[in-house]
Amino acid sequence: MDITTLIPAHLRSMRPYVPTPPARTGQIKLDANENLLPPSPRVLEAIATTPPNLYPDPDQNELREALSEFVGVPKELILAGAGGDEILDLVARLFLSAGDVALDTPPTFGVFKALADALNARYVPVQRHADFSLDVDAIERAVQANPGAKLLYVCNPNNPDGSITSEETLLRVLKLPLVVLLDEAYIEFSGQKSLAGWVMAHPNLIVLRTFSKLAGLAALRVGYGIFSPQIAPHVWKIKQYFTPNAYAQAAAVAALQDQPHMQAAARVIIGERNRMGEALSELGWIHPLPSYTNFLLCKVDGNAKEVHAYLAQRGILTRYFDREGLREYVRISVGRPEHTDELVRALKEM
Length: 350
What we know:
Elements: H1 9-12, E1 28-29, H2 41-48, H3 61-71, E2 78-81, H4 83-95, E3 101-104, H5 111-118, E4 122-125, H6 136-145, E5 151-155, H7 167-174, E6 179-183, E7 205-210, E8 223-227, H8 232-236, H9 246-256, H10 259-281, E9 286-288, E10 295-300, H11 304-313, E11 316-317, E12 329-333, H12 337-348
Parallel strand pairs: 1-11, 3-4, 3-5, 5-6, 6-7
Antiparallel strand pairs: 2-8, 7-8, 9-10, 10-12
């Protein structure tokens, strides 16, 4: 007997999302949009003083109270998970069953498609404009063509190009008869206000935030969702009991208690993003797009895949996306100043 025949056919044929691998010793990791600055000393102290033999608080009380103060919404509307990925998984499982329609806005975060595929939902991509802005007319047509569509993914700022979507555009999207998952993983680098508070007025809105980027807690996996009062109680029904783990919860609370550290990190990263963009532009053949994130998507005159491979040979890891709309680009995360210097030096010598 071929035991794999017991696995649903859609999972046997599914192409999984492939995350970036860990860096080897000596490599400069600019491929995963991580924060390469050290976290707050309070975070390290909180981890060191957390007992490993006790379960974490399944209700996340201390963390959700701190988050409530941070984002300005009631604690009851917040749920934390093992990274933003767990929140995305919960939302997908809450709304999608086999055959249900999920709309996406590529080029964007590839996990959205993987989630729909895993649930055997019908994935309907609505391509962005050439400048990576949302094609709202096309989204509205897609909703009309797919009655009963349940979920729309919007990343703001968008990954991988770093652009932002205006509040006017998002208000138009929220008028559609489906749930809008707004991924704000990079909002702290944008200078824009989070729309977390909008869940009170828009029952079809879910806002996703993370500690992986600005707070520098990617290894601990802490993300959170802000849900409308109509949705929030139902998400808890399908969540694993003890996520995030105790270390992650303690670290996240400590990070929130050190706002000056996070604000300083944001200033450093934004400043280095601007410096890196200027240095790359001066090369004349690599063109960074305007970015409101901690990375730059760069259009290459020539073969972008070869640039990506060359940098890897030099020990500098970047991200290349071999898919529609992105084959002329390389995405480069913002690192430390010495990383930018080494990157520019390598490109000058290419």
